[in-house]
Amino acid sequence: MFRINIAQRLKELPPYLFKEIDKQKAEAIKAGADVINLGVGDPDLPTPNYIIEALNKAAADPANHQYPSYAGMDAFNKAAGLWLQKRFGINIKSNEIITLIGSKEGIAHTPLAFINPGDIALIPDPSYPVYENAVRFAGGVPFYMPLKKENDFLPDLNAIPQDIAEKAKLIFLNYPNNPTSATAEVSFFNDLVLYAKKYNIIVCHDAAYTEIYYKGKKPTSFLEAEGAKEVGIEYHSLSKTYNMTGWRIGFAAGGADIINALGTIKSNVDSGVFQAIQIAGIEALKNGERYIKELNGIYEKRKKIMLDALNSAELKVYDPKAAFYIWFEVPKGYSSSEFVSLLLSKLNIVTIPGSGFGKAGEGYVRISLTVSEEKIKAAALRIKSAKF
Ligand SMILES: *Cc1c(COP(=O)(O)O)cnc(C)c1O
Predict the structure, then answer these.
(1) Together in a domain, 256 and 320
(2) pTM > 0.90: yes or no
(3) Distance 134 CA to ligand 1 centre (A)
(4) Do 53 and 161 belong together in one domain?
């Protein structure tokens, strides 16, 4: 009989976080419950029309129907570079930027360019699971940096043992942060560059949430730090900024040698982003400012409603400065997954246990604000009237 032998690297993967939640949710829906899904962080609002119109036009042009260039269209990379210049004051040369099929793609391929089997990579805990799994796929060994509330959910670089730092090849970071919604100041990134130089560690900064922020306070970029381009790369995404998660487009900017190595991996794996999507992406980047303001106003309203409810239920909540997540502590006596199960069985609200993002996420729960205000209000009512 034919036997499929799955590779060890697949056997070693932790179960995909959202699969378990989806299963629990499906069972509740099947049982007829009015379930409100505050789990997955996928924007509910449509892509703005001006972007869709640009796609429609570009899709009809046969010049866009062939293989795109691996590194992205010059025009897209130029628009992304200009956007970085305008938004963060960073100067990016044409060999310091590359188009990605969503930032997840670039993140997942980076370890293949720099990690040899057995090499260490520094991974935040809790974090987006892709960093750790991509490191494992490349044969690397993750070393977890706990993100603690007493450090405002930033890693304590000095707490990393020296022998680990000396063996580390990469460090992954993500601010504004998923799942904690914490932000980082340029002073933190300056320290990070010094640390990276001291130990020769490539910094991989995931900046997917820089355009989702509150009270008009714009988050920073790692590339604003002194010398950042010498030591690192930053991933940007159009997904959350313009409600384009399904379109699959992003870009990475940073040191030319780092971008080039990632490009070599990519050129052997993928064939770039459909040009019509890149052309729509140029339009998104050029004319998105007004739209971003409007979108953040919507998230701000939702956030306030949910924060009020969580506070009145006497839960310890971290008021986010950016990103569309709310991170809060579970009441005494519960584990993360026990409390998430309770929210689902008692209130029909889907959330994500902090422990799903890593050991240090135990004791926390993540709520996503990517459902309508009406649903946020309904969930808030249920939370307010509950006794935990
Ligand atoms: C959503 C998200 C991304 C964006 O992924 P894309 O592939 O660009 O859609 C990247 N990092 C984190 C932490 C995210 O939550």
Answers:
(1) no
(2) yes
(3) 14
(4) yes
Ligand 1: which of 105, 107, 133, 206 to mutate, judged by most atoms within 8 Å of the beta carbon? 206
Q: What angle do CA 228, 234, 238 make, to 5 degrees?
A: 145
Structure tokens at 213: 């922020």
The C-alpha angle 347, 352, 356, rounded to 5 degrees, equals: 145
What is the spatial distance between Cα 356 and Cα 96, in angstroms, rounded to a whole number?
Answer: 34
Residue 7 inside a domain? The answer is no
pLDDT tens for the 388 residues of the chain, in order = 899 999 999 998 887 656 766 788 888 899 999 999 999 899 999 999 999 999 999 999 999 999 999 999 999 999 999 999 999 999 999 999 999 999 999 999 999 999 999 999 999 999 999 999 999 999 999 999 999 999 999 999 999 999 999 999 999 999 999 999 999 999 999 999 999 999 999 999 999 999 999 999 999 999 999 999 999 999 999 999 999 999 999 999 999 999 999 999 999 999 999 999 999 999 999 999 999 999 999 999 999 999 999 999 999 999 999 999 999 999 999 999 999 989 998 999 999 999 999 999 999 999 999 999 999 999 999 999 898 8
Verify that 353 and 365 share a domain, yes or no. Answer: yes
> What range defines the domain where residue 309 resides?
15-46+290-385
What CATH number is associated with residue 66?
3.40.640.10
For residue 223, CA distances in Å to 104, 126, 203 come to 19, 23, 10
User: Quick check: CB of 250 below 6 Å from ligand 1?
Assistant: yes
Q: Looking at the structure, tell me whether residues 282 and 174 fall in a common domain.
A: yes
Q: Which atom of ligand 1 is nearest to the CA of 104?
A: 7
Do residues 261 and 318 share a domain?
A: no
Which of 259, 287, 315 marks a domain boundary? 287
Q: Do 88 and 179 sit in the same domain of this protein? A: yes
Per-residue b or e along 235-251, where b marks 16 or more CB atoms closer than 10 Å to that residue's CB: bbbbbbbbbbbebbbbb
Q: Is the peptide bond before 179 cis (omega within 30 degrees of 0)?
A: yes
Q: Is 172 in the pocket of ligand 1 (CB under 6 A)?
A: no
Total structural domains in the chain? 2
Is residue 324 in contact with ligand 1, taking CB distance under 6 Å? Answer: no
